[in-house]
Design a protein that fits this description.
Number of helices: 4
Largest sheet: none
Distance between the termini: 32 Å
Number of strands: 0
Low-confidence stretches: none
Strand content: under 5%
Order of helices and strands: HHHH
């Protein structure tokens, strides 16, 4: 189990690295275009950055789930009468979500997207 703050920092750093790589790519591409005698890039940005962009979007979803857990965790220490049953339900939803056997960083598997969406729906359903 990793520290939440450290994990959020690493996820953010992944996205920052992606942005930095794309800025460098754009800068080099512009330099090449300014000098038509030099050999130009013969590949698309999508082929270079497509998987990294997909991974960056996945890190955003992971961060969203971590923030949801942090937000809902305040119920555990709440002294409001009757909140216990809601806290138990929330804890069960997150326990079930965290027990999933897949790697959430594997973008080829769409299970995380489906399950995180369902988690958000289930949490919203607790409020109605």
């Amino acid at each position: 189990k990793q520290d939440r703050a450290d994990m959020l920092k690493r996820l953010s750093e992944c996205r920052a690295l992606n942005q930095h790589y794309q800025k460098c790519f754009a800068r080099e591409k512009a330099k090449l275009l300014a000098n038509p005698d030099r050999r130009q890039f013969e590949f698309s940005e999508m082929s270079v950055f497509g998987k990294f962009d997909t991974f960056a979007r996945r890190t955003e979803k992971i961060e969203e789930v971590l923030n949801l857990k942090n937000t809902w965790s305040v119920l555990e220490s709440s002294k409001i009468d009757g909140i216990d049953s809601l806290a138990v339900s929330v804890r069960a939803l997150f326990k079930n979500f965290e027990a999933k056997p897949y790697d959430p960083l594997n973008t080829r598997k769409r299970d995380f997207d489906t399950d995180s969406g369902q988690l958000k729906l289930d949490l919203a359903g607790l409020l109605t």
